[in-house]
Each structure stands twice: as structure tokens, then as C-alpha cells.
């Protein structure tokens, strides 16, 4: 699929997205966009917080490194289920009310995680996290066009999905830093307080956002007849599964494979996340013009990075440089895939977004689950090769689509 190829419903890659006008009563649109971006920041930080605290959590709760992968698997698989269910179940309800309610529940889930006396308790709290992830992503992903003028939708989408990248820059490293100072429970407690603050920001800055139309299950399923949407969902599954098969275990990878001490983990994850923010805005701008080519470049970057990490990642300098390259490549994944979905189904953005969020989180669940036996039985290095194979599948699908597309 190349620039100029028709995606669906008259949408053309590189053309502006036909979207509804922004709400007329919204006087501070960019504050509202930032508030929604902070909501995505909260859910992604909560979801990914165990990555930066992986070693102390598994040690405190008495489970193996491989079994620790369930800390990501549980919320991800439930988010995959809840994303479409929340949108269908919400019917005509005000999206602002739903978003604020989910942020309140997320604050409670973080508080429960901080108090967890066992892995069973911790995973029970992560069930609530999964519900919130699916709901917030599905609602927030399609709000850009309702908050800003049509010409600013691309930038607003990058800001909303910038919460994903900023979570890597600030959320996960800061969680690791707080965990190093005061323990991993304090990190989840701080996250609960932040979620409540973001709830207040969204409640005060967002306008009323009634549903444009109630979404039914039949209408949701009918979107799967869209070939461009189907391809985007398959690419999403492979890219995300491959990434999380490796990234779930990035802390043990840095400490065991590259021999970094615990004090280095926070700065290294910060560097990864800073590169991810750059990748988010670079990817968002490029995907607005050529989504398929942008995603192919991202897949190639991830593939090369994982293979090189396996080959030379035992050298600390090489591992640090590759981690930054990894962040730069993955930073553009979410916004580029969301742009693909909006271009593939411009008249059904909320339905397409809910399917995208479901498959994205299914990819997280698949990657973190596949990493459990892979790491425990084969080791961290072999797990990188298996993760690279998933990325290669996504790259092959994108390359094949590009060859078949009309110039």
C-alpha cells in the first residue's frame, strides 16, 4: 500500500481525514487535548509500571522472572476484550463521563496494587487495570477530531497518543526511580494520586461529548469486511506482540544480559522513552502522509534493533545505544497505526479504534505470555530472536501490500 492508494470509503492515503467539526462550546481545545493525552499517559504508565519494577515485584511476591510476565498479560488480554465492549455498552452516554469514571477506577486499581500482599491480589488489581485500559484507549483514540479544527487533527492525535511515549519517558523510569527510593508499592501509590489529578483535569476541561451514534455489535463486526482495516489489525498484532515479547523483560535483559547495575535502569529507560517521544511525533507526521511506508520503516527498525541486541547486547555501550534506537522505532507505532485505522474507516472512527485497541492489547498479551515459557526455557537471548520473527511477519505483510499497490 503506497501513497495514493485508496483505503476505504473514499479515503486516500495522504489526504485529509473527513471528520466532524469540533464541539462549538470548546474554548480551550488544546487544554482538552492535553487532558486526554494525560489520560492515555495514566493508563499506559499503569500498564507498563511493572516493567521498570519487574525485579523487585517478582522478588517481593515470590514468583519467577518468566511468571512475572503475567503482570502484563492479565491487563492486556482483558483490555482486548473490554475495548469493544465498553464502546458498545456505552451506547449514547457522554464520553467525558465515561472517561472520568474510568480514571477514577484506575486510581483505585493502582491503590489496590500498592497494597497487594501476594501475586494473586496483585493480578486481581490488574484485572481492573485491563478494564480501564480498554475503555480509555477506545474512547480517547477517536476524540482528536471532536476537539480541534480539521486541519489540526494530525497534531492532536500525536499529542493524545504522545501519552504513550511520555509514559515511557517519565512514567516507567520515574516509577523505577520511586521504587528504588521508597519501594515498588510507593510507585503504585503515587500513580493512584496522579490518576485522580488527571481525572479532575479532564472533568474541568472537556466539553460534553455525547456519542455521535450508538454502536451495535453488528456494526462493529461489519468493519472487519474492510480489507485495509483487516491488514492494519494483522500488522498491529504482529508488531505489538513482537515488541512486548522482548520489552516485557527489558529490565532483566539489561541487568543479566548487558550487566548494568540497578542504578542504571532508570536513566536507561528514560533515554528509551525520550527517543520514543521523538519517534511518536516523527511517526505521526510521516504517517499522516504515508502510513504504510512509515509502518514499514518502523518494522524494519525494530527488526534490526532486536537482532543486533541479541548479537552484541552483552556489551553495555552497544546495549544502551540499541535501547535508544528501539525507543525511537517503537515510539511511532501507536500513532502510525491509529492514523492507518482512521484513514481506513473515516466514517466509523470509534468502531475502528475499538477494534484497534482490542488487537493492540491482544498483541501485548500474546507477547508477554509467549515470553513466559521462552525466557524460562530458552533464555533472554533466544527470546529476542522469537520476538524478531513476529516483527518480520509484520514487515513482510507491509512489503507485500506495497508491491501490490498501484503507483
TrEMBL record:
GO molecular function, one term: transmembrane transporter activity
UniProt xrefs under PROSITE patterns: MFS
Protein name as annotated: Purine ribonucleoside efflux pump NepI
Region (Disordered): 1-20
Membrane topology annotation: Multi-pass membrane protein
Compartments in which it is found: Cell membrane
Keywords noted in UniProt: Cell membrane, Membrane, Transmembrane, Transmembrane helix
Species the sequence originates in: Achromobacter agilis
Chief subcellular location: membrane
Family annotation (PANTHER family): CHLORAMPHENICOL EFFLUX PUMP RV0191, PURINE EFFLUX PUMP PBUE
Listed InterPro entries: MFS, MFS_dom, MFS_Efflux_Transporters, MFS_trans_sf, Tet-R_TetA/multi-R_MdtG-like
Residue ranges of every copy of the Major facilitator superfamily (MFS) profile domain listed in the record: 32-406
A GO-annotated cellular component: plasma membrane
Top-level taxon of the source organism: Bacteria
Keyword Cell membrane among UniProt keywords: yes
Ranges annotated as spanning the membrane: 30-55, 67-90, 97-115, 121-140, 152-178, 184-207, 228-250, 262-282, 294-312, 318-337, 349-370, 382-401
Pfam family, one: MFS_1
Amino acid at each position: 500500500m503506497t501513497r495514493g492508494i485508496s483505503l476505504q470509503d473514499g479515503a486516500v492515503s495522504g489526504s485529509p481525514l473527513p471528520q466532524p467539526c469540533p464541539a462549538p462550546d470548546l474554548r480551550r481545545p488544546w487544554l482538552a487535548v492535553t487532558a486526554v493525552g494525560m489520560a492515555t499517559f495514566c493508563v499506559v504508565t499503569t500498564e507498563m509500571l511493572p516493567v521498570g519494577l519487574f525485579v523487585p515485584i517478582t522478588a517481593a511476591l515470590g514468583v519467577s522472572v518468566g511468571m512475572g510476565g503475567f503482570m502484563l498479560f492479565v491487563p492486556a488480554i482483558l483490555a482486548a476484550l473490554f475495548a469493544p465492549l465498553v464502546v458498545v455498552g456505552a451506547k449514547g452516554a457522554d464520553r467525558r463521563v465515561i472517561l472520568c469514571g474510568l480514571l477514577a477506577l484506575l486510581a483505585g486499581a493502582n491503590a489496590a496494587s500498592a497494597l497487594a500482599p501476594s501475586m494473586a491480589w496483585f493480578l486481581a488489581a490488574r484485572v481492573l487495570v485491563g478494564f480501564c485500559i480498554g475503555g480509555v484507549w477506545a474512547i480517547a483514540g477517536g476524540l482528536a477530531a471532536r476537539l480541534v479544527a480539521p486541519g489540526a487533527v494530525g497534531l492532536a492525535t500525536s499529542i493524545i497518543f504522545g501519552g504513550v511515549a511520555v509514559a515511557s519517558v517519565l512514567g516507567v523510569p520515574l516509577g523505577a526511580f520511586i521504587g528504588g527510593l521508597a519501594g515498588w508499592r510507593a510507585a503504585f501509590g503515587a500513580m493512584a494520586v496522579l490518576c485522580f489529578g488527571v481525572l479532575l483535569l479532564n472533568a474541568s476541561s472537556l466539553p460534553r461529548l455525547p456519542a455521535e451514534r450508538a454502536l451495535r455489535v453488528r456494526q462493529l463486526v461489519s468493519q472487519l469486511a474492510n480489507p485495509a482495516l483487516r491488514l492494519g489489525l494483522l500488522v498491529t498484532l504482529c508488531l505489538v506482540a513482537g515488541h512486548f515479547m522482548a520489552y516485557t523483560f527489558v529490565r532483566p535483559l539489561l541487568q543479566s544480559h548487558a550487566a548494568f547495575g540497578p542504578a542504571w535502569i532508570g536513566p536507561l529507560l528514560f533515554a528509551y522513552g525520550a527517543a520514543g517521544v521523538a519517534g511518536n511525533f516523527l511517526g505521526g507526521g510521516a504517517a499522516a502522509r504515508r502510513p504504510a511506508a512509515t509502518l514499514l520503516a518502523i518494522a524494519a527498525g525494530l527488526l534490526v534493533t532486536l537482532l543486533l541486541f541479541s548479537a552484541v547486547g552483552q556489551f553495555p555501550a552497544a546495549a544502551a545505544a540499541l535501547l535508544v534506537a528501539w525507543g525511537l522505532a517503537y515510539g511511532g507505532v501507536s500513532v502510525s497505526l491509529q492514523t492507518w485505522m482512521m484513514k481506513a474507516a473515516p466514517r466509523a472512527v470509534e468502531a475502528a479504534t475499538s477494534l484497534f485497541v482490542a488487537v493492540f492489547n491482544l498483541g501485548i498479551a500474546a507477547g508477554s505470555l509467549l515470553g513466559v515459557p521462552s525466557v524460562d526455557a530458552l533464555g533472554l537471548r533466544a527470546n529476542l530472536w522469537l520476538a524478531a520473527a513476529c516483527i518480520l511477519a509484520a514487515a513482510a505483510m507491509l512489503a507485500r501490500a506495497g508491491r501490490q499497490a498501484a503507483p
